[in-house]
Every structure is written in structure tokens, then in C-alpha cells.
Specification:
The protein is α/β, with parallel strands linked by helices. The protein has one domain (about 5-135, about 175-225): Decaprenyl diphosphate synthase-like (Undecaprenyl pyrophosphate synthetase). The chain has seven helices and six strands; from the N terminus they run E-H-H-E-H-E-H-E-H-H-E-E-H. The protein has helices at about 15-25, 30-50, 70-90, 105-120, 135-155, 165, 215-225, and strands at about 10-15, 55-60, 95-100, 125-135, 180-185, 200-205. It has a six-stranded parallel sheet, with helices on both faces. Helix 4 (about 105-120) links the parallel strand 3 (about 95-100) and strand 4. Helix 1 (about 15-25) packs across helix 2, helix 2 (about 30-50) packs parallel to helix 3 (about 70-90) and helix 3 (about 70-90) packs parallel to helix 4. The longest helix has 24 residues, at about 70-90.
């Protein structure tokens, strides 16, 4: 890898936990458990590589449609992950952020997410963003409502609304847009994830299921990113 061309922010759609489990004749819940554990390993890999931001798509607003047992297990597993890993993240100077809607996430998990953010607020190393109960369309709707309320109060003039101002009302207002999106399991779609923020991101798809995605795979994705010619609508390369 070329250290000077590392993507500042990588976003990951962690897909394939259920299929990973089924391939091993295990319950889907076991796949999710192993998948959540793998977040820890990739966080450490991202920090070793020198990344500044990494976002994990952990639970979408559409995932509530899944079987209740599976949803409940995901909530419990995330709660355990935070309690087990939070102090280590803090000691490693990692900042934790959660994006997504609060309801209907259980109150105790909402509290744990806020406490994790507060504890690590002043850390200056890698920023780990967890997209939980997140959907990009709901995010854009929420931002539009906030802007409309600000206009009604007279805090914003209609003429002031542009892309820069709109971005300040998104969940990711203090986070740079991802330069690279990775999706595991072979699926090739964005699935309502960071639609606004991924406008100019490079997309990378791997057939590996998320539990099998390791540091070497992350490096491979970064090398692929570094080989691309990024022009952002210009005729000249901006690599």
C-alpha cells in the first residue's frame, strides 16, 4: 500500500453472516455472533493500517422485519460487544460514534451507545462509526424536517440552502464522506446505506462472507482503491 494514498474513510456493509452460518450447518444467530466479533479484529486492523475513519453498517431500519429471535440476539450481542470492548477502544485512543434513529432500539442499548460516545468523545485516533437502526432515506427525511423547522423559525433563509448546509443536518455532520465502500458476500448494491455520502466513493465488492473478511482482505481492498483513477467529473486524475 501507498501510505500517502490511504482512503481517509472506509465504509463497510457487513453482509453474509447468515449464509456463513448455514454453510457450516449452524444457526443464523451464530453467524451474527461471529460477525460482531469480527468487527473488533477489523477495527484493530484499521488502526494498524493508519485509517482515520471506518464505518460499519450493523443494523438497518429494514432489519426489524427479520425474525424476532434474530433481532433480539443482535441487540444483546451488540450490548455485550460494547461492554466488553469499550474500555479497550478508549485505551487505544479510538473515538466511537453511532448513527441512526433511536426508536425502536431498546432504551438500555440507546444508553450504552450514548455512554460509549461520551467516554471516547475527546479521543484523537481512529474514529469508529456504527450505523445502527440506520437507513439513508430516513436520514435524508430527518435532515429535511430539521431544515424545514429551522426555516419556519427564521434561523435559515431558503436562499442559504445548498449541499454544504444540507450535509450539516445529516447524522454524519462531523464525519468526512467515505472514499471507499466495501461490501462482503458478493452482493453488489448499496442497500440504502449512506446514499448522500457515497456520491463519489469507490465501490469494492468481495465474495467473502463478513466473518471471513480479515486484515489481508482490507489491505487488498485498499490496494484496489489506490489503483483507480479518481477524476470527480474532471478530465484530470485527482489521485
Amino acid at each position: 500500500m501507498r501510505e500517502k494514498r490511504l482512503p481517509k474513510h472506509i465504509a463497510i456493509i457487513m453482509d453474509g453472516n447468515g449464509r456463513w452460518a448455514r454453510k457450516r450447518s449452524l444457526p443464523r444467530t451464530e453467524g451474527h455472533r461471529v460477525g460482531i466479533d469480527n468487527i473488533r479484529d477489523i477495527i484493530r486492523a484499521a488502526q494498524d493500517i493508519g485509517l482515520k475513519y471506518i464505518t460499519f453498517f450493523a443494523f438497518s431500519t429494514e432489519n426489524w422485519k427479520r425474525p424476532k429471535q434474530e433481532v433480539s440476539m443482535l441487540m444483546v450481542s451488540l450490548e455485550r460487544f460494547l461492554k466488553k470492548e469499550l474500555q479497550d477502544l478508549h485505551e487505544r485512543n479510538i473515538r466511537f460514534r453511532a448513527i441512526g434513529r433511536d426508536d425502536p432500539v431498546p432504551k438500555n442499548l440507546q444508553r450504552d451507545l450514548r455512554e460509549a460516545e461520551e467516554l471516547t468523545r475527546n479521543n484523537t485516533g481512529l474514529t469508529v462509526v456504527l450505523a445502527f437502526n440506520y437507513g439513508s432515506r430516513p436520514e435524508i427525511v430527518d435532515a429535511t424536517r430539521k431544515i424545514a423547522q429551522a426555516v419556519m423559525k427564521g434561523d435559515i433563509n431558503l436562499a442559504e440552502i445548498d449541499e454544504h448546509l444540507f450535509s450539516k443536518f445529516l447524522y454524519t455532520l462531523d464525519i468526512p464522506d467515505p472514499e471507499l465502500l466495501i461490501r462482503t458476500s458478493g452482493e453488489q448494491r448499496i442497500s440504502n446505506f449512506l446514499l448522500w455520502q457515497l456520491s463519489y466513493a469507490e465501490l469494492y465488492f468481495t465474495k467473502k462472507y463478513w466473518p471471513d473478511f480479515k486484515k489481508t482482505d482490507l489491505i487488498k481492498a485498499i490496494k484496489d482503491f489506490q489503483s483507480r483513477d479518481r477524476r470527480f467529473g474532471d478530465v484530470k486524475s485527482h489521485n
